[in-house]
Write a structure and sequence with these properties.
The protein is an alpha/beta fold and about 425 residues long. It folds into three domains: about 160 residues, Adenylosuccinate Synthetase, Chain A, domain 1, CATH 3.40.440.10; about 90 residues, Adenylosuccinate Synthetase, subunit A, domain 2; about 160 residues, Adenylosuccinate Synthetase, Chain A, domain 3. It is about 30% helix and about 20% strand. It is built from 13 helices and 20 strands. The protein is globular. The chain starts with a strand and ends in a 5-residue tail after the last strand. It binds inosinic acid (IMP). Inosinic acid (IMP) binds next to α4.
Amino acid sequence: MPAIVIVGAQWGDEGKGKATDQLGSRVDLVVKFNGGNNAGHTVVIGAETYALHLLPSGILTPGVVPVIGNGVVVDLSVLFEELDTLDARGIDTSRLVVSANAHIIAPYNRVLDKTTERFLGSRRIGTTGRGIGPTYADKMNRLGLRVQDLFDEKILLQKVEGALELKNQILAKVYNRRAVDPAEVVDKLLSYTDRVRPMVADTSLLLERALDAGRTVLLEAGQATLLDVDHGTYPFVTSSSATAGGACTGSGIPPTRIDRVVAILKAYTTRVGEGPFPTELHDAIGERLRKSGWEYGTTTGRPRRCGWFDAVIGRYAARVNGVTDFVLTKLDVLTGLERVPVCVAYDVGGVRHDEMPMTQTDFHHATPIFEELPGWWEDISGARSLADLPASAQHYVHALEEMVGRRISVVGVGPGRDESLVLHDLL
Ligand code: IMP
């Protein structure tokens, strides 16, 4: 199995880190292809919990080569901090490879992210404040700084001056902030050069050679389908391509070499930040899901908005990603409910929608049409095969599979590395 893509099916935080980590020992390279340190993967190994933001989760598996692809935006100070933390915990990080074409999150873009959000007031996106949006905007505006620019001081200064020409006007005249000195930014960035240099490579070439040699490459998405800049709930999205198509543009691996697309689907739904969320619960049950699922942001610590499972979103994720397998996570969090409502379609102004409405306006006005499935009370965390689950939990899995139209290959029943049921092998 040469190339396999892992994406989030909902609004993120579905548990991609665990799925990637589980495959980790059977893959040779793990590539992060989009986003930056706005992501948050929590991986539990034995008694140790690792929260990764920028680094691919493959970094925790001995022998795997973790790759930061060209589609990623890199905050170098965060990269080094994360590496230092792992080094101090005895993890070997020396195999990390960083694309020469990845864009750098310049310090002024962190400032602009936070300042713009404040300025937007009630129209804010609820970003993570890490400079992600402004950095991708610079990339598309052809004002970005790439990792390779660290190796050419003259070009770096030219690019920083170019980017700051307009940004300084905006900072000073619109936001009433101090203008940024280009020389200071360049000095800061150059202080990272020596440490990053040995990690930098032409990662597209490296990946092609790895695939030609029969190695297995796992491409892991940051964020998720509904946060994708094209296919998500725009404008309440991140600024990168978080769907399976992004795996190709963000890594340099062509579509013809992708063999499998695995989407991670939580047994209920969560979202961080602003934007529409049809099945959101504003009551004690929502609070219960938040507490028992420990639904607090890995990156920002913000409480996540919680709601019931939404099959319309599951079907949509299957479609836009070309999903071959779903991994259903956190089924154990639903234990102890008399009945479990699942959204099967939306009602928009009296019209039933089985698929995602075409317009954002309709999606904002969508009210869920629920079907109630029977709940279960038994502790399921020890289950290791489908037959170990109570009948109604088995029924829940089968019903969801039917609704989303693709097979569910793995079911998560607890946070630990081995707390899963494998119905079909992912590799
Ligand atoms: P940004 O990615 O910081 O620009 O934030 C844009 C939107 O994406 C906000 O609603 C964030 O809360 C959301 N977001 C970004 N990264 C993640 C993630 O890893 N999980 C869930 N939501 C995220």
